[in-house]
Design goal:
Strand content of chain A: 15-25%
Radius of gyration of chain B: 25 Å
Helix content of chain A: 25-40%
CATH superfamily of the largest domain in chain B: Aldolase class I
Largest sheet of chain A: 5 strands, parallel
Number of strands of chain A: 16
CATH topology of the largest domain in chain B: TIM Barrel
Shape of chain A: globular
Largest sheet of chain B: 8 strands, parallel, barrel
Distance between the termini of chain B: 65 Å
Largest interface: A-B, 16 and 12 residues
Mean pLDDT of chain B: 96
Number of helices of chain B: 13
Structural class of chain A: alpha/beta
Structural class of chain B: alpha/beta
Oligomer: heterodimer
CATH class of the largest domain in chain B: Alpha Beta
Strand order of the largest sheet of chain B: 3-4-7-8-9-10-15-16
């Protein structure tokens, strides 16, 4: 595999619909009244309306309908688990086959991107200021809605670019970076200032934000992949999945993984991304090790299918026990242990138990950890917010924290069995947070 | 195998499917290809003084991604010399003696012109003549086509002139661009027509280009009305055929034309009084090969119904067609939604709510499942819900029996009048 092949491997896999396909599919939509697909969309996109607009040739209006409800609607068109959401609810499931809502959404938003369409305008300035900590889907969504309502919004973004996981954490062949950056620019075009490379708590203090702004939105997401807590984790060749993916989206692609053996620990969507990334970088063999079974896996079905098609192997009920390196500190092997499932734990999932004496060793060149993300406990505590193990406590629907002028949304409030960490859910929370702040600061006037 | 042969005023053809006088019958090459494909007859593209055509002639109406729901043209009658057409007609008839070959004719409204062309055309052995009193564009501006066809006296007179010399059956083709087509149909019959055919095309402007603001089509930036045809005109044509078929003074066979694309369309026209049908737009869209399915579909239909001959279908539904005043005011249907088939798109609900009588309720059952239900007592039986419903069998329009005897508007008015008269006396 040449470097050229590697580059090709990272181009978007799914082809967008062409004009004819989009028109035919749009015309197939029944234009249901009070359609179940709208109910099934966490952001409540008026799906029949945006599809109708495609059918009439009002593509700009279609993109507006989508992006109004979902400020990261172009990304969501690509990464949403549509068969569990809108497409799963399509009434045509009971008649023929569901409308390709995700693909039509992509068609309309791609048009807007290609045509550099300006979709929204900032509201008349009301003199109030809001700081948004974190420019991922939740933060962008909150900022977009606040700007539309006339607030002066500043986003503090630790990375070089905003967009959060859409920009850095989802593989290019599923979500190319320009899509996410277009969404960022849509928000910027409303006059939202985005201070990049600015980490709250380090480059600017929580106190300063609290003193300077009328309200603060904490939408900092989550942190790095936590430690496995096993021997050999510090070895050369052990990676953090999120960093791993980020590298493929920020640095020139290399073929250093050519012919290598890779294992990925974990079976969430990020694990799948890390695994398919590895295959596409030229790895000879990529295995996903998961201490539970397929039933407990958190990756979406379509992600799982995608990984299998890419040739990723799955090793269920397998946990890493020790990572072994050579004299140069480079990974050479991983020792694993077979697991079995015991009684359900507090989270309802059956607890994996090691099978004694089942240890075995595999030769590997790289180990990628994808066992979730750490919480921003430090940051939360700098704001002195009540939290539950790094999950900020917020009021239902208003997303107001223990400090009335601080609101939190997105992954930073995700966890402990609440909701699902979907981009689309973060977008909706951002919107709701904006409305709650509007209510809080102006009584909704 | 049913008998598909027809006999229309003495013109015989092996099946009821003829090509209408139009671009597909412009030449011997085309008509012979059509006969090879199985067409039972063809009305040759209208003969007359060769004309000059413009470039950019056709346009179509596309609807929701479906192409050619409607079609229009500003092409005129034949642009080829009469001699060439006659020679090819002769050769075509010789090669396909069993097919109906009809010459469409259009000349100035002068007796000697009609006599001359009738004689020349009949000399090559055609099975019949069709007088084109319908073309709505171009020729009409020269006093021919629909300009003649809109004036009953001219229809009658010209038909009469043709009949003075014609030895083959004469079909008069009527224009729909008229308030009451039975007026011109009757005039044709008075003039001696052996049959009538309808409809010719309807005056139309296909569209306007949103960017250039040119008409569609346009000729160097200018447009003129064209003749509209294709699937979208079928209901208009079917009504005109039926109106003529049920008219007591129009007792001649009808050749049905207008939006016929399939054997099903043909059956409808035949049931409503057409002895055969003529097709153009469907061929312009798909080619001559569509006739195979038309023949086969009609055959299977007749076999399934146990009908020996297609001629047995002719006019069978005409007695069912009447005036509004003869409809039973006490007949009632109501919508019923079949819950096991309904996919809950709510299209019936919003259609009824916004555009009809607000009699569909969105309800939730004990298990929290939503469903739609018609309040039958409030339903007027308009059919709108069943029309917008995308799933076959989800909504039935069921007859609601009542104890009232049939009562039409005319009967009601007559009864009221009798009552009034009685009390005034």
């Amino acid at each position: 595999m040449s470097l050229l092949d590697v580059t090709k491997n990272f181009q978007e896999v799914a082809k967008g619909l062409n004009d004819r396909e989009a028109l035919e599919e749009a015309n197939r939509c029944l234009y249901c009244y009070d359609a179940p697909c709208i109910q099934a969309c966490p952001t409540g996109i008026d799906i029949p309306t945006f599809i109708k607009k495609i059918a009439t040739g009002n593509i700009k209006g279609s993109a507006q309908t989508i992006m109004l409800a979902n400020p990261v609607g172009a990304s969501c068109a690509r990464v949403c688990p549509t068969e569990e959401l809108c497409e799963g609810a399509c009434v045509l499931n009971n008649a023929t086959k569901p409308i390709m809502i995700g693909n039509l959404q992509r068609y309309a938003t791609d048009w807007a991107i290609r045509n550099e369409a300006v979709l929204f305008q900032a509201g008349k300035r009301n003199g109030k200021t809001v700081a948004v900590v974190g420019g991922g889907p939740a933060g962008l969504s909150a900022a977009r809605e606040l700007a539309r309502m006339g607030y002066t919004v500043t986003i503090f973004e630790a990375e070089q670019e905003a967009g959060g996981l859409n920009t850095y954490g989802i593989v290019s062949f599923r979500l190319p970076q320009p899509i996410s950056l277009w969404e960022v620019n849509q928000v910027k075009s409303l006059g939202v200032e985005i201070k990049t490379n600015t980490k709250v708590g380090k480059d600017i203090s929580a106190d300063e934000l609290l003193q300077t702004y009328d309200a603060v939105v904490l939408a900092a997401g989550m942190g790095r992949v936590p430690l496995l807590g096993i021997e050999g984790e510090e070895l050369d060749g052990v990676y953090d999945a999120i960093e791993w993916i980020k590298e493929t989206k920020t640095k020139p692609l290399t073929n250093k993984l050519l012919g290598k053996k890779v294992v990925v620990i974990g079976a969430g969507n990020t694990a799948i991304d890390a695994a398919t990334c590895s295959v596409r970088l030229g790895a000879e063999n990529v295995k996903i090790l998961y201490r539970r079974t397929k039933e407990e896996m958190t990756a979406y079905d379509f992600e799982y299918e995608f990984a299998k098609q890419d040739g990723v192997e799955f090793r269920w009920l397998t946990a890493p026990k020790r990572i072994i390196g050579d004299e140069n500190g480079k990974v050479t092997h991983i020792e694993c242990v077979r697991m079995t499932l015991g009684e359900p734990a507090a989270d309802g999932r059956r607890r994996p138990i090691p099978v004694e004496g089942s240890e075995f060793t595999m030769r590997v060149d790289a180990v990628i950890k994808a066992i979730g993300q750490t919480r921003h406990v430090d940051l939360i505590e700098q704001f002195q917010l009540a939290h539950d193990g790094g999950v900020v406590k917020v009021a239902h629907e208003t997303y107001q924290t223990s400090n009335p002028k601080v609101f939190a949304c997105g992954d930073i409030v995700f966890g402990k069995g609440k909701g699902e960490a979907m981009v689309v859910a973060a977008a909706q929370q951002g919107k709701q947070t904006a409305y709650a702040i509007h209510q809080f600061l102006t009584g909704g006037k | 195998m049913a008998d598909l042969r027809i006999n229309l005023a003495g013109i015989k053809s092996p099946n009821p499917f003829w090509l209408a006088s139009a671009p597909p019958t412009n030449s011997g090459y085309q008509v012979q290809r059509a006969f090879e494909a199985g067409w039972g007859g063809a009305v040759w593209k209208t003969l007359g003084e060769p004309i000059l055509n413009v470039s950019s002639r056709f346009a179509a109406l596309h609807f929701n991604g479906q192409r050619v729901v409607g079609f229009n043209n500003i092409e005129l009658i034949t642009d080829r010399p009469l001699e060439a057409n006659l020679q090819e007609m002769y050769e075509t008839k010789k090669r396909f003696p069993d097919r109906a070959l009809i010459a469409s004719l259009m000349v100035e409204p002068k007796r000697e012109k009609w006599h001359e062309i009738v004689k020349r055309v009949e000399a090559v052995g055609v099975d019949g003549l069709e007088l084109n009193f319908g073309c709505p564009h171009g020729m009409a501006e020269r006093g021919m086509g629909s300009a003649s066809g809109q004036v009953p006296e001219l229809v009658e007179k010209q038909t009469y002139w043709v009949k003075e010399v014609a030895t083959t059956p004469v079909i008069v083709k009527l224009t729909p661009n008229i308030t009451d087509i039975t007026a011109t149909a009757e005039a044709a019959v008075k003039g001696g027509a052996d049959a009538i055919s309808m409809i010719n095309t309807i005056n139309s402007l296909m569209g306007v280009d949103l960017d250039t603001w040119n008409t569609i089509p346009h000729v160097a930036g200018k447009g003129a009305h064209g003749g509209y045809c294709g699937p979208a005109v079928k209901p208009i044509a079917l009504n005109m055929v039926a109106e003529c078929a049920r008219h007591p003074r129009i007792r001649v066979p009808i050749s049905g034309i207008g939006g016929i694309s399939t054997w099903k369309d043909a059956v409808e026209f035949i049931l409503m009084g057409a002895t055969g049908v003529q097709v153009c737009t469907a061929v312009m869209h798909h080619g001559f090969r569509i006739v195979e399915d038309m023949i086969e579909g009609l055959n299977h239909y007749l076999d399934e119904k146990g009908i020996a001959s297609v001629m047995d279908l002719v006019g069978k539904c005409v007695p069912n067609y009447s005036d509004w005043g003869n409809l039973d005011l006490n007949y009632k249907v109501a919508a019923r939604i079949n819950q096991d088939v309904c996919i809950q798109c709510n299209k019936c609900y919003i259609a009824c709510e916004d555009a009809s009588h607000q009699c569909i309720d969105r309800l939730t059952d004990d298990d929290g499942k939503t469903y739609l239900k018609v309040r039958e007592e409030d339903c007027v039986g308009c059919n709108l819900c069943s029309i917008v419903c995308p799933v076959d069998g989800a909504i039935d329009m069921v007859e609601i029996s009542n104890d009232l005897p049939p009562m039409t508007w005319n009967e009601r008015q007559a009864a009221l009048q009798a009552f009034t008269n009685y009390h005034l006396k």
